[in-house]
Amino acid sequence: MGASPTPERLSLVLGLLLLMLATIPRYLVGGHDSRLNLILLALAVVAAVAAVQWRLLEAEARKRLPRLLGRLGGCLAAGLAGMGLYHALFTDFIGWELLIAHGATLGLLLHALSLWVKAPR
Q1: What is the pLDDT of residue 92?
Q2: Which of 4, 37, 79, 109 yields a CA-CA distance of 20 to 30 A from 18?
Q3: pTM of the prediction?
Q4: Which of 86, 85, 78 is nearest to 106 (CA)?
C-alpha cells in the first residue's frame, strides 16, 4: 500500500481520465443518466488522485512525464485506428461515440502493456 508515485503510474491514471472522458458521449447518446452520473463522480475521484500523485512526484520524475504522455498519445491514436479498422472490417457502423470509447480502451491497454514490457529493472 505504501508504493511511491512514479511517472508511469501517473501516465496510466491520466490515460484512465481520458478513457473516462471518452465514454461520456456514449452515455449521453444512449440516455444512460445514472451511468453518466457515476462516471462523472468517478472522474472527479480519479482526477483528485492524479493531482495528489503529481504533487508527490519528485522533480526528476516529472521530467520523464512528457515522454510518457507522448507514448500515451501514440497508443491512444493506435487504439483508435485499430478499433476503426476492426469495426470497418468485421461489424456494421456502430457510431462515433462507441468507436472513440473502444479506441481509448484499446489505447490505454496498449500503453499499459508497453509500460509493462519496458519496465525498469
Answers
A1: 84
A2: 4
A3: 0.90
A4: 78
Alpha helices in 31-58 (DSSP H): 33-56
**Run of H or E including 81:** helix 59-90
HSE at residue 58, side-chain half, CA atoms within 13 A, is: 4
Residues in CB range of 6: below 8 A, 6 or more apart: 57, 61
Q: Give residue for cell 483528485.
A: 48
Long-range contact pairs involving 59-68 (C-beta distance under 8 Å, separation at least 24): 61/5, 61/6, 61/7, 62/7, 64/7, 65/7, 65/10, 65/11, 68/7, 68/8, 68/10, 68/11, 68/115
Cell numbers standing for residue 84: 476503426
C-alpha–C-alpha distance, residues 86 and 53, integer Å: 35
pLDDT of 2 reads 64
72 by Cβ neighbours in 10 Å (0-12 / 13-18 / 19+) ranks as buried
Alpha carbon 62 to its chain centroid, in Å, reads 19
The answer to whether the beta carbons of residues 27 and 39 sit under 8 Å apart is: yes
